[in-house]
Amino acid sequence: MSACRMTTARSNWGCVPVGNVQIDNHNGDVQLSLPEKAGFRVDARTRDGEIQSDFAELQVNNGEHEGKASGNVGNGGSHIVINNEHDGIEISPSQPRTAETAGASGY
Predict the structure, then answer these.
(1) H/E stretch holding 3
(2) How many Cα atoms within 13 Å fall on the side-chain side of residue 59?
(3) What does the alpha-carbon distance between residue 83 and residue 76 come to, in Å, rounded to a whole number?
(4) Phi, psi of 19 (to 5 degrees)
(5) Are 42 and 71 in contact (CB under 8 A)?
(6) How far is 43 from 23, CA to CA, in rounded Å?
(7) Nearest residue to 9 via CA among 81, 23, 69, 22
């Protein structure tokens, strides 16, 4: 299985991963959009921020100084690890691409 690892001091980056993914970020939000019908397993942690997820299968626990989320969506295929410091993490389903949105994004 392929893997993608990203480490950054800012959250402005992109990657089209296939397989396992690890994201290590400092000083900024991490916004992760995944296909609604994808299968993946998440282990996420943020310090000095909160985690929000639109996937009901993920268990999210936000404390005073730390947020954690974990769980399997679908078949749990790919493993996604997110570590963030000093801001939040948002995990949401991506919007289906249409000819109209594909042309607007330039892809």
Answers:
(1) strand 3-8
(2) 3
(3) 19
(4) 105, -145
(5) yes
(6) 11
(7) 23
Q: Phi, psi at residue 56, to the nearest 5°?
A: -60, -20
Question: How would you write 53-107 as a 3-class SS string?
Answer: ECCCCCEEEECCCEEEEEEEECCCCEEEEEEEECCCEEEEECCCCCHHHHHHHCC
**Structure-token pair, residue 86:** 């000093």
DSSP conformational letter for 37: T
pLDDT digits (tens, 9 = 90+) for 1-33: 445 555 555 554 445 555 888 999 998 899 998
Model pLDDT for residues 32-45, shown as the tens digit of each residue: 988 888 899 999 99
Dig out the tokens for 93 from the structure: 């389903």
First and final CA of the chain: distance in angstroms?
A: 25
Cα–Cα distance for residue pair 15/86, rounded to 1 Å = 22
